[in-house]
Amino acid sequence: MSIMKKLSSLIIACSLALAGAALAQQPVEQQSPSKGKRAPEKARAPQAQPKPNAAKPETSAPKQQRGVTKERGATNQPGATKERGATNEPGAGKGKKAPEKQESATAPETNVSGQREAPTPRGKQQAQERKGMKTPAPNAKTQPKATPATAGAKATPAPPAPASPAGQPNAQANAGAKAKKPDSQKVQQIKSQHANFRAQPKPQQVPAVTFDQNRRIERSEQWQGQQYEVFRSYHPEWHDQGWYHSHYNRVELIGGGYYFWNNGYWFPAWGYSPSAQYYAYDGPIYVGHRAEPPDKVIADVQAVLQEMGYYRGEVDGLLGPLTREALTAYQTDNGLTTTAAIDQPTLDSLGMG
Fold first, then answer.
1. pLDDT > 50? residue 293
2. How far is CA 216 from CA 120, 230, 232, 253, 308, in A?
3. What average pLDDT does the structure give for the chain?
4. β-pairing, 285-286 with 257-262?
5. Which of 85, 94, 196, 215 is the most exposed place for a label (fewest CB within 10 A)?
6. Rounded Cα–Cα distance for residues 200 and 276 (Å)
7. Distance (Å, whole) CA 47 – CA 33
8. Spatial distance between the Cα atoms of 107 and 86, rounded to a whole number of angstroms
9. How confident is the model at residue 91, as a pLDDT?
10. Is the pLDDT of residue 234 over 90?
């Protein structure tokens, strides 16, 4: 009878022990959320520790420890995730990531096993951007720097310079010779060398002009100023020797044709001698009030323009196309009226007036 009582007491004690163990497990199981309910997510609590159950009996310590490992997101917990940024609460979101904006770009991350990880390239990039540093895109192509040849729009070629009415050969010789002034000593030296200069007719090199009573000097009506009046009013006239001698006191044979002198200018004396009518230019030639022969003055002008780089022809004392082209270039560069002739402003500018 006493044995039966002892067995009964032992059975009762075991039952109580088992009941206590069952009671110890009940709070742990209640902590897990029911299906279909999600616990609120916490912003970046990678090392959050679960609250200990203070009311658990000592006999349930081993089972309580197992519950703790499950709460930390161990791999044997159903629905646990290894994504960075997931909360450590059991069953929280089942794999949901925490917002990336709440991540610290400089702080090292912690994986599910509690180990610290190195910052990701994205984290480094965000850290540099916060510090004001620019990070080049990984696949960005380096653009070549613009060179002076390729900067902006394509270069537009300059329009060609207008051709001179007297011809083309001296156009290249005139390049780079703008606004030049002759050397006064050189001018005096040239004039002394041509003191006895006499021009010779060269109809093969410098063709002669023909008489045209209706001819007027081209564009002379546009030349403003009293010094150009003689060019505006000039027109060729045909007279005999008696008429010229009765109107002008000086008529001379110069370079194959007769010229008469009047008030600083030499003019062709058309009709004076039909056998001597070679004129390279039909118009007034200004020589000043000293009445120097026109061929000598033309030779002086040719030599000075040649010295300055405007004239590349021969110093022959004939006012042909090459000489007139050089005069046009010099007049243009020095702001003179482009008469293509030897006029008073041009001769004064050359220091020969």
1. yes
2. 92, 11, 8, 24, 31
3. 72
4. unpaired
5. 196
6. 12
7. 21
8. 16
9. 44
10. yes
The tokens describing 62, both together, are 């081993």
CA 111 to chain centre: 55
H or E element in which residue 17 lies: helix 2-31
pLDDT of residue 26: 56
Alpha-carbon distance 343 to 116, whole Å?
99
pLDDT on residue 321: 96
What is residue 281's predicted lDDT score, i.e. its pLDDT? 96
Mean pLDDT score, 232-244: 96
Q: How confident is the model at residue 284 (pLDDT cuts 50, 70, 90)?
A: very high
For helices 2-31 and 61-71, angle between their N-to-C axes, nearest 10 degrees: 10
| Beta strand residue intervals within the chain, DSSP E | 109-110, 116-117, 251-254, 257-262, 265-268, 285-286
The angle that helices 294-308 and 321-333 make with each other, rounded to 10 degrees, is: 60
C-alpha 337/C-alpha 137 separation (Å) is 65
Residue 296 has pLDDT above 90, yes or no: yes
* DSSP codes, 124-188: HHHHHHHTT-----TTPPPPPPPPTTTSSSPPPPPPPPPPPTT-STTTTTTTT-TT----HHHHH
What is the distance between the alpha carbons of residues 344 and 353, in angstroms, rounded to a whole number?
Answer: 7
As a residue count, the chain comes to: 353
Structure tokens at 60: 């349930």
Q: What is the pLDDT of residue 57?
A: 44
Is residue 130 very low, low, confident or very high in pLDDT (cuts 50, 70, 90)? low
Find the range with the poorest average confidence among 40-49, 226-235, 291-300, 307-316. 40-49
List of residues 6+ apart from 173 with CB closer than 8 A = 309, 310, 311, 312, 326
- Classify residue 216 as exposed, middle or buried by CB count within 10 Å of its CB (0-12, 13-18, 19+): middle
3-state SS class at 232: helix
Cβ contact 345:333 at 8 Å? no
More confident residue, 327 or 85: 327
274 alpha-carbon distance from chain centroid: 66
